[in-house]
Amino acid sequence: MSDELFNREEFISYFRDEAEELLQQIDGDLLKLEESVSAGLDPEIINSLFRALHTVKGSSGMLGFTDVQSLAHKLENLADLLRKERMPLSESSVDILFTGRDLLTGLVQAAIGEEVAPTGVDEYIRKLDQFTSIYEETSHVIEGRTGPELHFEEAAAHEEQASPSDVAAFEAEVERLLAQAQGKKPDEPSAAAPPAFAPVEPAPAPPEPFIQDLPAQPVGAVTPPIQPVTKPAPAGAPKQPNGDQKRSSIHQTIRVDIERLDALLNLVGELVINRTRISDIANTLERLMSDKVNAAGGSSQAIIAPLAKDLADSAALLARTTNEIQESIMKVRMVPIGQVFDRFPRLVRDVAKARGKEVQLVISGAETDLDKTIVDEVGEPLMHLLRNNVDHGIEPPDERERMGKPRAGTITLNAYHEGNQIIIEVADDGAGINIEKVRARGIKQGLISADDRLSDREIVDLIFTPGFSTAEVVSDVSGRGVGMDVVKRNITRLKGVFDVESITGQGTRFTIKLPLTLAIIQALLVRVVDELYAIPLDSVIESQRVEMVDLRTVHGNEVITLRGQVVPLVRISEFFELGGERDPDKVMIVIVGLQGRQVGLVVDSFEGEQEIVIKPLSDVVGRIPGISGATILGNGSISLIIDVHSLVNEARVSGKIARVEFSGV
Amino acid sequence: MSKRVLIVDDAVVMRMMIKGILSKNGFEVVGEAQNGVEAVEKYKQLQPDLVTMDMVMPEMDGITAVKQIVASDPNAKIIMCTSMGQQALVVEAIQAGAKSFITKPFQPPKILETIQKVLS
Asked: For residue A636, is it within any domain?
């Protein structure tokens, strides 16, 4: 459709963002509602819940997501009953809303093609109808409402809603009520005001989601008579996620404070002014060059000197502006971490409920900003940590009481900036990590031996070992599948640091330190044959020049012994098949750290440290093992950025690196 | 000269849709408001020829906003955006001074027809 009014994809992306936000808000409202079961209903909470469901219903209806619309409508009805106090607030009504909210989330994700549709929706709706029916009937009696009105609400809940006669009937009903209110008969029925529920002749256009059908409708066109209303499958929204395209079909969007954009615009203005200034200088220079007489005169020094000064000023300004633009655009990418934190109260509630524990979650620092990419990635590890806190950290209420602690445990989730990093702490006031238990488990799993003398700290570190779990009974909540090792790996992948402190009987504190952004990093530049490579500085431990005689070979691969530790080497030139010749006397080695192990990368020369901006490789190139992206250096040349993790893995798989048993913790 | 419209709705999807329909049909959307409070402020500031007003919004609902706008400008032309099942509210809004209403999900021809009627 060439004349399409709307970019459906764009709309869906707006819808997704909006729905995500609203579903989050609904979750928060429900948590508060649950608290008010005993404390009494706060009208503002239930109103907010009602409005959010109402908006989800409206927006999904516009896009033709009838499943979402229909469930949202039912839930809105339930909220409305509570709001009007026709139904008492109870634990079961809140539970039903919680379940409904989760199904609604599933349906939204299915509608935008991110997930397959959740099961059990029909069954849930049946239960919901049953639950609300008794109150609805009473309410109709109380209000003295008649059947037909109910008909509208019912209609709105179903696909019949799309029936033009229903809309027309509704509109007619409004007109009738209006006329009644004005104390006169609808003497001259307008086109939209036939007697209520009479067959409606000139029906308005079938209200299918009009993104598809609108372009065919000229303004004010005489609308066709009732058409059989069939729901077309939304063109741009596959019902089934298809493989890898799962997420890529919808654009990632970000909401930006307009002030941040204004700041950026200002800086771009500076650039433009500066461009003019540089053009002026260039023009003047050109004129001088052509003006041979002048150039031949002895006063060239006097003419060029001010120009040189202008140019230097310009360059300084350019440097300052670009720095500021860099900072400014980074700020644009920053979002508050609260976007992730918001979903945790619900999680903690559910886990605590399932495990029979009482837990209070205290969140602070939700407004702390960090890069959108990191915010998106950090949710999962945090979720696992919180589960762990509830499951392993917080003791059962009775046990806590015996130990003189309040029955309800407290988990604090806190975020704050420190220098160029964000610190996220997850702490509980539970039992702490049981050193003896971890030790026993470690011995049982063969990770340590019974006569190893390890500090408490070293024992605690065992929980980061893959497959390690102290939970005696594997619970549904944690202690299965994903372990602390995965959390640590995820954090490491984000270039972060993960740490744990624990005091027996007093609690456990996990600390995550993350860089504020992944887009700009410090890197060590190295030369290999004719290529420049950038190695992220956070993985570099040291760089060294080593004599060839110090090298040994293990199964044909080179290793070096550094301070008593055997470090395998990878020759970058051979890994990337660059050719070049080996220096017979010495090698330059960059020692990088990888999950506690060290690996030496052999390069030709070190070219210094520099801050680089990471640019992803284009899809055409695809993923290259060992390379995470590229960057453009100050002199315009391009340098590939080495992905230490994938390079070493690849080298391991292809046998280009010595398999060295890792000695010592 | 094209008519200047203020769109009031808490749902961004709705605002974009109405905006799309109107700007494609020669109207100038001069502002958008997310709730009644914003609507009242923007009305004073922008003095639009027409307002489309959602009913259910946070901070201040559509009916209250209609009352406040009409109190300051009795000639304000406001069209309510309503869902089915809200007939009582629509009546209340129109009694408060709204000129007409359109029903969600919107049908563009119907919206334009209603607007033209209200403006003429």
From this structure: yes
